């Protein structure tokens, strides 16, 4: 009879202490380290959104930091710690600057998180949506540029779509889809002049 030792599941704090030397980004999912390797198109879209946000921050002198390198601790419905790494994060600059010696991992909610959808689309539409809502992130974008989610989200025929989720007064996300020439309405960047098509074709 063979016995196997169960794999040790990491806490968020242990995850941050790991020496991860391979290229790519990493998340802590269900106690295990998951490596994220985006495609070039995925990376182009995330960078385009990030640059657009940075332009707004600079133009309007907003007190935000925009980055693609911020880790945030979330909790699942059963209280399990996750380490999420949005493709684009917008965080209050005062909060960010309050502890410059700390690593780029936050326990507090971001102002805005953007996930550019990959083939494992359920992560963004279901798991992260629940975790970001639970954490209290006021604005969450799902950018489904390949239209890989199910028809219940994208319609029939499936069309590339950007979903913007905003927290209501009860702490529940309300969703608005944007397609084609629709101008994306952002609570964080109220003067943002960006259409879904501009983002999806970047």
If you had to describe this structure to a student in words, what would you say it looks like?
The protein has a six-stranded mixed β-sheet with strand order 3-6-8-9-10-11, sandwiched between helices. Strands 5-4-7 form a three-stranded mixed β-sheet. Strands 1-2 form a two-stranded antiparallel sheet. The protein is globular and about 45 Å long. It has helices spanning 12-16, 40-60, 93-97, 121-135, 151-154, 196-200, and strands spanning 25-29, 32-36, 64-67, 71-75, 81-84, 88-92, 105-106, 112-116, 139-144, 161-167, 173-178. The chain is 27% helix and 27% strand. With 202 residues, it is of the alpha+beta class. The relative contact order is 0.13. Mean pLDDT is 90; it is low at 1-6.
Features:
202 residues; six-stranded mixed β-sheet; three-stranded mixed β-sheet; 11 strands; 27% strand
Beta-strand portion reads: 25-35%
Name the poorly predicted regions: 1-6
Helix tally? 6
Rounded radius of gyration (Å): 17 Å
- Distance, first to last CA: 56 Å
Q: Helicity, in percent?
A: 25-40%
Globally, the shape reads globular
> Based on DSSP secondary structure assignment, what is the total number of beta strands?
11
Spatial strand order of the main sheet:
3-6-8-9-10-11
Largest sheet: 6 strands, mixed
How would you state the average pLDDT, rounded?
Answer: 90
Helix and strand run: HEEHEEEEHEEHEHEEH
Architecture blueprint of SSEs:
Elements lengths: L11 H5 L8 E5 L2 E5 L3 H21 L3 E4 L3 E5 L5 E4 L3 E5 H5 L7 E2 L5 E5 L4 H15 L3 E6 L6 H4 L6 E7 L5 E6 L17 H5 L2
Parallel strand pairs: 4-7, 8-9
Antiparallel strand pairs: 1-2, 3-6, 4-5, 6-8, 9-10, 10-11
């Amino acid at each position: 009879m063979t016995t196997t030792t169960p794999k040790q599941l990491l806490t968020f704090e242990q995850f941050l202490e790991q020496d991860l030397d391979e290229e790519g980004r990493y998340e802590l999912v269900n106690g295990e380290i998951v490596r994220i390797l985006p495609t070039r198109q995925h990376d182009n879209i995330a960078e385009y959104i990030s640059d657009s946000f940075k332009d707004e921050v600079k133009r309007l002198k907003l007190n935000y930091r925009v980055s693609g390198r911020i880790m945030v601790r979330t909790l699942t419905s059963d209280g399990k710690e996750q380490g999420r790494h949005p493709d684009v994060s917008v965080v209050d600059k005062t909060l960010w600057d309050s502890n410059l010696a700390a690593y780029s991992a936050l326990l507090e909610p971001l102002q805005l998180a953007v996930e550019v959808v990959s083939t494992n689309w359920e992560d963004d539409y279901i798991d992260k949506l629940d975790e970001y809502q639970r954490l209290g992130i006021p604005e969450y974008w799902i950018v489904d540029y390949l239209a890989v989610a199910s028809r219940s989200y994208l319609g029939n025929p499936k069309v590339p779509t950007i979903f913007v989720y905003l927290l209501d007064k009860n702490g529940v996300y309300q969703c608005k889809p944007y397609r084609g020439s629709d101008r994306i309405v952002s609570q964080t960047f109220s003067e943002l002049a960006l259409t879904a098509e501009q983002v999806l074709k970047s």
